[in-house]
# Entry
Amino acid sequence: MINGVFQRTVDALKRLPGIGPKTAQRLGFYLLKMPEAEVVSIAQAIVDLKAKIRFCPVCQNMTEHALCEICADPTRDRSRIVVVEEPSTLYAIERTGEYRGLYHVLLGAISPLDGVTPDDIKSKELLDRLGGDQVQEVIMATDPNIEGEATALYLTRLIKPLGVKVTRLAYGIPVGIDLEYADDVTLIKSLEGRREL
Ligand SMILES: [Zn+2]
# Structure
């Protein structure tokens, strides 16, 4: 018989992606054996994450401030927007130091099989940013898989009629690999070799 509190912890952990019942139970036992102060600090970090971090109202990147540091930086080139699925890809591109424009984080990709529709990603927020004539190019840096390609195609159809140039990263990146795991050189080359859609 598993204790109710323990089961509640396991059930909670199981709600995280990639954590099945066995892993959740193993993590539960692990937490039980850890010093209390360490467990409290993990729990507090999660509470702080939700309390202090929000999504930038302009680009949907993570931030602790009113705007993320990229949107708030007056030296960034405001004529270009790189569109990514998750903040992790934004950080991978930032790490290369080669891109000085802005970003837009979709917080997902269109995936009919998983029930993710265009309304579930931050596509409207992207289109809202293209109203003026400041943005001249939107660079699609969604992942090179079925969902990422479908998302890029969907957005391109909506953006091109607005008179904004749309480009797609060139891929030395193997199909099916998440962009966030691409090395810096591959990312730089694929940004330089982007083609117009
Ligand atoms: Zn931002």
User: Anything to note?
Assistant: Helices lie at 4-14, 21-33, 36-52, 87-96, 123-128, 146-159, 184-192.
